User: What shape does this take?
Amino acid sequence: MNLEKLLRSFLVLGVVGCNQAVPEPAERVGEPSVQSAPATRSEPTPSPSASCDRQRVERLLSAPHDPPSVAELSAACADVAPILNELARDQSARGLVRLRSLESLGELGGAPAVATLSDLATRASELPSVRRTSLLALGKATASGDAERERVGTAALSDSDPHVRRVAAQLLRGSKTASVRVALEQAKTRETTAFVKEELEASLGQR
Assistant: This one.
């Protein structure tokens, strides 16, 4: 074999070696192949009360349609009672919001609600509509014969607004407490508004 043939043989062997595929390393037995999957982030789902704040409750109470029920308010804000108390007492809040807050407190009941309703029902600086609604709500939050109900109702018999006095008489209807019946009789004697006097007589069982 001459030099030229030897050189050609080396070239052929070199080309063949370069064109051979390099085998992939075999997977180890017992080890599964690892495939990269796209990472997924699980975002926490906010609870209904996660964004519970005064502004959210105000928006619900400001709706032009029927007021939200206590169940709807509680579903949107788990701890809605403190916010309702705050709105009810805030004289700078919208009138509709305050009145609906008072009504909702009457539905909720409980000591904090009764305290707020009792205070606003007898506060002379409040609007008559606030005093009247507070009395109506107190009637829902308390049972007939309740001591606080009778105390506030008796005080409201002397309110300057006849519509408030009428609700006060309704609140005391059927009371068996002697002092309450005396207060009703005295209120009837001095009352000059016909529809209030009729309500006082009804509360005394005279109608």
